[in-house]
Amino acid sequence: MLLRTATRPLAPRADALREAARPAVRWGLGHALPKSVIGAAARRGDLHGRLIVASSTSSDVPVDLFDAIRASGPIHRSRYAYVTATLPVVREVLANPDVRAGVDLGTGAGPLGRLGRWAHRTTPMGPLTPPSLLVTEPPDHTRMRKLVTRVFSVKAVQRLRDRTEEIAEDLLTSLEQQGRGGRPVDLVEAYCALLPVTVIAEILGVPDSERQKVLDFGTAAAPSLDLGLSWRRFRRVEGALVSFEAWLVDHIDAKRRDPGEDLLSQMVAARDDDGVALTDRELIATAGLVLAAGFETTVNLLSNGIALLHDHPDQRALLRDEPDRWPNAVEEVLRIDPPVLLTGRTVVRDTEVAGMPVPRGAVVTTLLAGANRDPEVFADPHRFDVTRENAADHVSFSAGRHFCLGAALARMEGQVGLQRITERYPDLRLAPGATRRDTRILRGFETLPAYLS
Ligand code: HEM
Fold it and tell me: Which of 386, 415, 419, 436 has its C-alpha lying 20 to 30 A from 187's C-alpha?
């Protein structure tokens, strides 16, 4: 009896401590441990390890390591993963039914796996946590994706083109006011970030007043794709994901009460052929992914494109004389400086890749940015050439069943966004002080100061 009274007040404290320990374990298994293992492998010369370390310490794309990995064979076996920078092999992996999307660190078999599963029970919903489309496989993936595909078809996107042109023109007009008197303006803040968020927010029915909040959530959560985050950063990212989810729950509730014409209202009301709706978690995950993917990547396409065109005046001149080349120019920007550098897969059944056996449980990293520079596919691959005939053969939107749902939208926004700014400000000059974003898988600019004339 005495014992029972003594332990009773301790139980809630023990529970609280256990709950507080889960994020620390998630971080340890998902970031600290892989970081030290990879660091050690890199010091021993492992190419994949060197690649990860290089990408986490510098904003330059490690093109030489891509080339070295490709030169070592169609699929390179590193100490802890398989990795490929060969374009046909990247496509093969991404289409292979024996691999599934995503990489689970610390959730395999054994005691570490059990610990990982325990810690992941309270993981906030994010782009890489189920039921996000990015890590869901058929049949659930097929069912969920079908409900949103229609809205992003090439035809549906063509209808959005005029509205996107208007948004771009409005943003460029306010840019002009900001740049009056020869003052430099930050093109990322005032243009590249605002164009995609305005378009996707209109598609999803997010009110104007909420857009800055959504942008802030996106920026804070973007490093969630990266490996080896510091504890502070990891906590910030998880905090942002929790706030984003709470905001989505409220927003979806509002659409339930007062539906509009927008995609989110359609998703809330959608039923599959058997009359089944998305579950609440599926709805939140899909809406969150479409919203965040809708602007976190396209902002990079615009900023990478502006910088590339600025640095290649001959290509800019060509586009001025032959504006029909703009769609191909956007493909070339996507090829040479892709907004998403790589993606990961896990083998679920013993399989073969490029004729080589790859066992169940293996992790395969497909280097999209490396495949885009495969010299067997792209002649003189490190050259930026807007006339390149096969520029669109890149894999910047991935391939296979997870091929980017928003590719048509992103391409249209890239064409409108880059052509409009280039034609309106033909003498635009980048000012000193441009900085790259410190995310590692997503690649773009944090700031791009420029003089408009
Ligand atoms: C230049 C801009 C963009 C790039 C480079 C890009 C890139 C990608 C990549 C590489 C993937 C697949 C990742 C994997 O295979 O693991 C993907 C998936 C996805 N993207 Fe995009 N994306 C862009 C714009 C957009 C836009 C505007 C939307 C908004 C609708 C969007 C929505 C999605 C969704 C929902 C998925 C998940 C598809 C699935 O797993 O079935 N993306 N994107």
Answer: 386
